[in-house]
Amino acid sequence: MRAHRSLIRLLFLVPLLALLGGCGYNSIQSKDEGVNAAWSEVLNQYQRRADLVPNLVNTVKGYASHEEEVFTKVTEARAKVGQIKVSVDQLDDAVAMQKFQAAQGELSSALSRLMAVSENYPDLKADGLFQNLQAQLEGTENRITVARNRYIEAVRDYNTFVRSFPQNLTAKMFGYKTKANFTVENEAQISTAPKVDFGKD
Question: What CATH number is attached to the domain comprising 38?
Fold first, then answer.
């Protein structure tokens, strides 16, 4: 009797697995994991940038202590990006993604202003620590751009797949929703890292 039940289960499971495979279930899972991995890398690179901020501010302060407004803007922007989190479970939330992107954009702008301060302070530009931090920031901005582009492509691939028939039926059945993506007014912005190499001689 037990062997008979096992056989019935097996006969039921084999067509079910074949049906799920044919309807794209495994591919949806794989593409979903790809999006999550790409997003984790985006977060890693943004965190790397945030970690550079305190040392950058302190180094610039050492030469330009009266640029208080610039330091305040950078510190506030860094605090904001620390408060706005988007986990892999929230990647279908377009509003959360917009808030995240806006906060990161504010930090990018604030950092650009901070780096521009070096133009007025030759001693700061010549400081070895500042040059090292500047190089780290430039490299991190490049890595952010690469990670963000990979995420954009992963989301496009996933969204196209889950919207197509018959995968859309499978996605709906198992609760897979389309993912939110980065948005830019100028598409070229997304593939070009912000320039932080101010005033290098």
Answer: 1.20.1440.20
